[in-house]
Amino acid sequence: MIYSINHRTTYVYEKPVGFARCVLRLTPATTATQTLLDSRVTVTPEPSTTLVRVGPFGERTQTIVIDKAHSELVITGTSRVDVGAGKNHDRDASAPWEAVRAQAFGTRALGTDGPAAYLYPTRRTPVVTAITDYARTSFTPGRPVITAAADLMERMYADFTYDPETTTVSTPAAIAFEARSGVCQDFAHIMISGLHGLGLAAAYVSGYLRTNPPPGKPRLAGADATHAWVSVWCGEVDGWIGFDPTNAVLTRQDHIVLAVGRDYSDVAPIDGIVLSPGSQTLKVEVDVVPDSEMVPEVMHHSMRVDAE
Question: Are strands 70-83 and 2-17 parallel, antiparallel or unpaired?
Answer without folding.
Answer: antiparallel
